[in-house]
Amino acid sequence: MTFYTVLAFFLASGELTGEAIILRSLQECSDAMDAYIYRDDMRDIDIFCVETRVASSSIRPIMRPSE
């Protein structure tokens, strides 16, 4: 099961910048973080991936054939 993950941007003072990106998995968030981390305008901003408890996908059970 995978959970929605929020890519959050915080100022050095600990305040949320107002920007947040919702992604479908922790891996997608990690990949997106790599795109932001090396930008010059993001030097004073901390970036975190925060996993939520809201499921974005799960394994569906397969019904057994009735006899």
What do these coordinates show?
The protein has 67 residues and is α+β, with helices and mostly antiparallel strands. It has one helix spanning 26-37, and strands at 2-11, 16-23, 45-57. β1 (2-11) and β2 form a beta hairpin.
For the structure shown, list the relevant keywords:
single chain; 67 residues; alpha+beta; elongated
User: Between the first and last Cα atoms, what is the distance in angstroms?
Assistant: 31 Å
Strand order of the largest sheet: 2-1-3
Radius of gyration: 17 Å
The number of helical elements comes to 1
Q: Percent range for helical residues?
A: 10-25%
**Largest sheet at a glance?**
3 strands, antiparallel
Q: What structural class do you assign from the helix and strand content?
A: alpha+beta
Strand content: over 45%
Q: Kindly report the average pLDDT value.
A: 85
